[in-house]
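tool_call: predict_structure(chain=1)
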Amino acid sequence: MNEAIGKVILGNAPGNNQMTAPSIQKDICNCFAEEVLKKIFEELGDDVFSILVDESRDISKKEQMAVVLRYVDKLGFVKERFIGLVHVKETTALSLKSAIDELFAHYNLSLGRVRGQGYDGASNMYGEFNGLKTLILKENSSAYFVHCFAHQLQLVVVALANKHLEICKFFEEISKLTNVVGASCKRIDLLRESQRERLQEPGNQEMSIARAGDTRWSSHDKTLLRLLTLYPCVLDVLEYIETSAWDDIHKAQAYGLQLYVKSYKFVFYLHLMKYIL
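tool_result:
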């Protein structure tokens, strides 16, 4: 560390200049971000590139649009670099296009240099007449659209899983299981207590059963991995619900889930789908 800097930071910093205020911490993060982006744009230079865009609602219920540039560097390596997360009030194609124009203007980029577009298959992105890809193609006919391969694969896996009745039932039962085990704080505490009793080795972290999402097939993989790890703990919680729940319906539900979870069929499909995913 530079000695001159070391004399005025960390433990040596004055009491009224610790740089720990939230606003200052955000300013420091923004400075880091600007320096990283500066290096990205220096590497890109005046070359052409493709854009990857996806929008999603965050935990605060705000629609956010992520923008990534894909390009080939001077050594011939393909690079993908995240350049910004933009809050959008609407998810219409016009609103997304306007946000991209503003972001490009801020970083002195031009749509004329775009040679490819990659989105998911949502109508506001993929629409043949009013989608985002069509709006960009009207300005730049060289910006060829490619449907995101990961999203295509996800759609294929979901369709195939739903066609197989046993696998479809398997994921339905897992959805019920996550709802039953995570239905109350008491049940979640029971799951944690069972983990502490069974996993006493140092370094083990407490887990919960991750709820699988409808649009993100990768979340199913996370759910299966957690279920494999917490399998005996989940059985403990189901046994407790069966014997201690005040509602007979909840007791019957826990009993039915126990029978299915303990069956050979469930364990086989659990390991099979983990291997496939």
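agent: The two ends are 46 Å apart (CA to CA). Proceeding to next step.
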